């Protein structure tokens, strides 16, 4: 009997009696098999208590290192050995919470973290913890090269005036301004200032020699435009 109820033989519960020996064999033990077992024969009885302990939950499938392109999303996934209470996700020492940037999902023993709108600064060590068990992996976000989304346009200006050439990058990145093959430097007549992804070149006190093709270069990317100078009309007194 188990807890006072008579046991019947089954695939999991095998009863045998050979000579003076009686045996009960339970295979694939579960927590529900815990209890008091008793064997009775001709007025004699013997009993014992069986305790079935839960197997410690462990990570059956660990996180794997991942490399993705900037701007996309990364999915980090791991699997526990059995269904367990919620786990803790971390980026470095920072505990992650669900929101616009992060999505945390748990479906049975499967755990998933999605990191969206990836930037190079999202690269680093991510970990998933349950009790004293931890699995971690490195996420590497490869930066996309900056591209010109707003290109230079041809311009016409009058001698002696100021000409401004503007262009825009897909993201902030260092640029170089050129007049033909000559690299321009900030100075009395040239003013180079950049605000994030917006790039601008100002040429003051225009002269006829300033008529040329100007380029803004960022890595392998380039945008060019021609500057045409009109002579200033001088009227006699």
UniProtKB/TrEMBL annotation:
SMART domains: IG, IGc2
Source domain of life: Eukaryota
Keywords tagged on the record: Cytoplasm, Disulfide bond, Phosphoprotein
Main location: cytoplasm
Domain Ig-like: 56-140, 145-228
Gene3D superfamilies recorded: Immunoglobulins
The UniProt record lists the keyword Disulfide bond: yes
GO cellular component terms, A-Z: cytoplasm
Annotated localization: Cytoplasm
InterPro entries according to UniProt: Ig-like_dom, Ig-like_dom_sf, Ig-like_fold, Ig_I-set, Ig_sub, Ig_sub2, Obscurin/Obscurin-like_Reg
Protein name stated in the entry: Obscurin, cytoskeletal calmodulin and titin-interacting RhoGEF
Gene (UniProt): OBSCN
């Amino acid at each position: 009997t188990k807890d006072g109820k008579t046991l019947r033989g089954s695939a999991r519960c095998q009863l045998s009696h050979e000579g003076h020996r009686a045996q009960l064999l339970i295979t694939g033990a579960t927590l529900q098999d815990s209890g008091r077992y008793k064997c009775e024969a001709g007025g004699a009885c013997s009993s014992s208590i069986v305790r079935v302990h839960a197997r410690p939950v462990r990570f059956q499938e660990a996180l794997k290192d991942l490399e993705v392109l900037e701007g996309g999303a990364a999915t980090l996934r791991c699997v526990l050995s059995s269904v367990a209470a919620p786990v803790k996700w971390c980026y470095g020492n920072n505990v992650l919470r669900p929101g616009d940037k992060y999505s945390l999902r748990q479906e049975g023993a499967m755990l998933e973290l999605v990191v969206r709108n990836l930037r190079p600064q999202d690269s680093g060590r991510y970990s998933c913890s349950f009790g004293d068990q931890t699995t971690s992996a490195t996420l590497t976000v490869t930066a996309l090269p900056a591209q010109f989304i707003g290109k230079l346009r041809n311009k016409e200006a009058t001698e002696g005036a100021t000409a401004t050439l503007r262009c825009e990058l897909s993201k902030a990145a260092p640029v170089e301004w050129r007049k033909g093959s000559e690299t321009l430097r900030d100075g009395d007549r040239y003013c180079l200032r950049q605000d994030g992804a917006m790039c601008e070149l100002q040429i003051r006190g225009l002269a006829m020699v300033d008529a040329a093709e100007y380029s803004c270069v960022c890595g392998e990317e380039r945008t060019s435009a021609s500057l045409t100078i009109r002579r200033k009309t001088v009227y006699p007194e």
